[in-house]
Amino acid sequence: MEQITLKFSKPIELSEFELTMVLASRLYELGKMSSGQCAEMVGLSKRAFLELLGKFGVSVFGYSIEEEDISTI
What residue ranges do the domains of the chain occupy? Predict the structure, then answer.
């Protein structure tokens, strides 16, 4: 596993877990990593990772419903 170090000019209001989850969620959303890989990165089971995605604004289904889409339903 590769490790990276991030440097911030001022403190951020996120825990290490939250920051890792933000990164993993985005990588999953972009299709750069699988849910299993992201779950391992965060230190969760695959199921737990998938259950948390919504809290980080990512759909498990890989798409989002926009307001204009709702009007056609």
Answer: 16-71
